[in-house]
Amino acid sequence: MKSTKTLAVSTMALMTALMLSHGAYAAGVDTDGDGIPDASEILLGTDQANPDTDGDSINDLKDTAPVSLADPIAQTGAPAPFAIKEALVENNYDYAAKKDAPDHLELLVTNSTTTEIKDFSLFLTVKDAEGGPTETYFKVLTGFTVPASGEARIHLDDASLPGHFRDNPNGIYHTTQTAKVMTFELAAAGFAPVSIDVNKDKGGAEAAD
Ligand SMILES: [Ca+2]
Ligand SMILES: [Ca+2]
Ligand SMILES: [Ca+2]
User: Which has more confidence, 17 or 68?
Assistant: First the structure.
């Protein structure tokens, strides 16, 4: 009898803990203040730390397609004096720490002129190559510059370091295992954009191996 009572008490404590944690979500822990609770954003595939996941200036709650927008980058302008030398979608390497880095999207951008280039923006397409959905994102790369006759790296991940920009952790790149085709279209003010396609093999974005 005693053990049954102990079990009953433990079960009650567990249920109470579950109800409290569920209550916290129900009460609407909304980190980014867009009107959608964090737990719901994870289920919906939007970013709980970004009120406008796709970058179209429409709040996630009001956006009827919160991870999709038409390409806002103008295709006109002078030929780009910069190039995407390398685009990584997995098997990243941390040169500063000299070790493998968790998989993320990364571009190496080169500048063939003798002046710094700035005011970059990026339109990213993540297409499921096995018939699933396509997501698109627009990002203004505030603070990112490429030095004269030099190169610089853009990282799309969680980091707040220079050259690092927020990526949707609940997007298909992170949450599904299917093969993908990623298209990076990079623009800088006054220049026509450059773009590159990169295939990602079947298998999810994973920690460094
Ligand atoms: Ca939210
Ligand atoms: Ca959000
Ligand atoms: Ca939006």
Answer: 68
Number of domains in the chain: 2
Q: CA–CA separation, 58 vs 19, rounded Å? A: 33
Compute CA distances 54 → 67, 124, 178, whole Å. 5, 10, 21
Q: Quick: pLDDT tens for 90-127.
A: 989 988 899 999 899 999 999 999 999 999 999 999 99
Q: What is the residue type of 57?
A: S
For residue 40, the enclosing domain spans 2-44
Handedness of CA 201, 204, 205, 206 (dihedral sign): negative
Query: Which residues place a Cβ less than 5 A from the ion ligand 3?
Result: 52, 54, 56, 58, 63
Among all bound ligands, the one having the nearest atom to the CA of 31 is 1
Structure-derived torsion over alpha carbons of residues 28, 176, 83, 85, reported in degrees to the nearest 10: 130
Residue 27: per-residue pLDDT: 59
- What's the gap in Å between 138 CA and the centre of ligand 3? 10
Looking up tokens 């008490």 gives 9
Per-residue model confidence (pLDDT) at position 203: 81
- Ligand number with the minimum distance to the CA of 55: 3
Domain CATH code at residue 105: 2.60.40.10
The Å distance, Cα 68 to ligand 1 centre, comes to 17
